[in-house]
Amino acid sequence: MFRFPTYSISEDYRAVYSISINTKGHTLTLFKNNAVFKTYKVAVGKASTPTPKGNFKIINKAINPGGPFGARWMGLNAPNGDYGIHGTNNPASIGKNVSNGCVRMYNNDVIEVFNLVPIGTSVKIY
């Protein structure tokens, strides 16, 4: 009797993503398995409402959250506010210090990142 080989997908084969955000350089770097995967231009908080610095996790995600949040929202567990990485309805703001503390991305870019990273992804902001 012929036996078919059995295969199982182990957690070890899943890509592990992490995000690093450089507030001075206005960049978000996406890492895949600890290697740079892609870098994106972003907007960050203005002086009166700076983007919080530290190590956080993505705790929720939303498609088309509405208003100024563009096409996607990825909420962070940062203290003292409701901060996230999101799209924008003002693409001219990318590359500047203009937000109320959130990290803004071009809508096409935030959709790309949103589709790759799961809830629980680590985010380092410096």
TrEMBL record:
Domain L,D-TPase catalytic: 17-126
PROSITE patterns in the cross-refs: LD_TPASE
Cited InterPro entries: LD-transpeptidase, LD_TPept_cat_dom, Transpep_catalytic_dom
Pathway: Cell wall biogenesis; peptidoglycan biosynthesis
Superkingdom field: Bacteria
Pfam family, one: YkuD
Keyword line: Cell shape, Cell wall biogenesis/degradation, Glycosyltransferase, Hydrolase, Peptidoglycan synthesis, Transferase
Enzyme active site: H86 (proton donor/acceptor), C102 (nucleophile)
GO biological process, one term: peptidoglycan-protein cross-linking
Top EC group: transferase
Family membership noted in the UniProt record: Belongs to the YkuD family.
Protein name: Putative L,D-transpeptidase YkuD
